[in-house]
Specification:
4-stranded antiparallel sheet; alpha+beta; elongated; about 25% helix; 6-stranded antiparallel sheet; 2 domains; Rieske Iron-sulfur Protein; about 170 residues
């Protein structure tokens, strides 16, 4: 009986040890998975991406190449920052150079539904072909369903270079 009782004690000692090992192993795996999932979130919260302020202004054109009094569509490269992703993309703007060298830069989308508009030289207006909105040379709505004037970019003139910034806030 003593041998039988002793073999029972050995079995009881082995079972809990194996079971506790598996439980600790499973909890360890779950902790490692949790840490692996939490690490990127912690890094993002502790070290948010920085948006460079100098990236808001873009060198767009040489003022000497722009006609005075006639809108000109220009293309330029703009860098867009989305978190850690930096993308260089082609952008356009309609530029109106006034006789006093003041410059207006319009966003290339109609304010109705975002269609691309064009300058119509015979009528001296910007015309959106989608829903017949028309705008004056200073961007004001002349006709059509457009709810507001053309959106404008902030502009700076640095010597003979035109720099385009972010969209101006609506009044």
């Amino acid at each position: 009986m003593d041998d039988q009782h002793q073999s029972h004690e050995v079995a009881d000692d082995l079972s809990p040890t194996r079971r506790s090992f598996y439980i600790k192993f499973i909890y360890g795996i779950m902790t490692a998975i949790g840490a692996a999932l939490a690490a990127p979130a912690a890094i993002y919260l502790l070290f948010p991406p920085r948006i460079p302020k100098e990236g808001q202004w873009v060198d767009a054109a040489d003022l000497g190449n722009l006609p005075t009094g006639t809108p000109e569509e220009i293309s330029y490269q703009r860098t867009r920052v989305d978190g850690w992703k930096v993308t260089s993309e082609k952008a356009t703007a309609w530029i109106v150079k006034k006789p006093d060298n003041q410059v207006i830069a319009f966003a290339p989308q109609c304010t109705h539904l975002g269609c691309a508009y064009h300058w119509d030289d015979p009528s001296h207006t910007f015309i959106c072909p989608c829903h017949t909105s028309s705008f004056s040379i200073d961007g004001k709505v002349l006709a059509g369903p457009a709810p507001r004037p053309l959106d404008r970019y902030e502009v700076k003139v640095d010597g003979s270079r035109l720099q385009i910034g972010p969209l101006e806030p609506h009044a």
